[in-house]
Design goal:
The chain is an alpha/beta fold and about 200 residues long. It has one domain: 3-Layer(aba) Sandwich (Rossmann fold). It has helices at about 5-15, 45-65, 105-115, 125-140, 165-175, 185-195, and strands at about 25-30, 70-75, 95, 120-125, 145-150, 155-160, 160-165, 180-185. Helix 2 (about 45-65) runs parallel beside helix 6 (about 185-195) and helix 4 (about 125-140) runs parallel beside helix 5.
Length: about 200
């Protein structure tokens, strides 16, 4: 063997031995917390519908035995993860103080340690912590899929103009589509992922 071949072969062998060869997909659930639901401090528009779709994704990933990571924002009152999508034993839950789920958390280390290179992202709010996670994940080399109907946001006001939640949501999806993430509906993702794993 020549020296050049050895220099290439050794890192590849290490990479494979660490379980990083091949695509591993994880579900990243961002900030599905009580304060976003009716009666909460920052109630969103139709969070129940988004939460129900997050639950469908969560059940699917559990059935498939694929990794799941929860992220929650440090905020009270209402900081608990919503009862409809509570983590089970062994599923990691990261707490954050910033919009970006990767900033000053162990998210990247947990994902890399599990061999994850592809993320399915959902949660709240679409235009804030969800968008930040998609952009940050993409910039760190992850392949991102954003599940559009498993996210929710709220009306915004800019210089006296009310921007409806649906417009905020759709404009965020449009800015992320293609350049940062594939955009898909819950039912379509579950069907596609089921077919691939059969």
């Amino acid at each position: 063997m020549n020296n050049t071949f050895i220099k290439v072969l050794v890192p590849v062998m290490l990479w494979m031995s660490q379980g990083l060869c091949g695509q591993q997909t994880a579900l990243l659930i961002i900030d599905v917390q009580d304060f976003y639901f009716p009666g909460g401090k920052m109630e969103l528009v139709k969070p129940e519908l988004a939460g129900a779709n997050v639950k469908l994704l969560l059940d699917h990933f559990r059935e498939q035995g694929q990794p799941i990571v929860f992220v929650r924002h440090n905020f009270e009152p209402g900081g608990s993860i919503h009862e409809g999508v509570r983590p089970e034993k062994g599923e990691p839950v990261l707490s954050k103080d910033h919009v970006n789920s990767f900033h000053e958390t162990q998210l990247d280390e947990i994902l890399r340690g599990s061999g994850v290179d592809s993320l399915v992202i959902c949660g709240m709010q679409t235009h804030m912590c969800v968008e930040a996670a998609v952009r940050a994940a993409h910039d760190q080399g992850y392949h991102c899929t954003l599940v559009e109907d498993a996210c929710a946001t709220r009306d915004l006001v800019y210089e006296g103009q009310i921007i409806p939640a649906r417009s905020v949501h759709l404009s965020t999806l449009q800015t992320l589509k293609g350049s940062y993430a594939a955009i898909i509906l819950t039912r379509d993702f579950i069907k596609k992922n089921t077919d691939q794993n059969e």
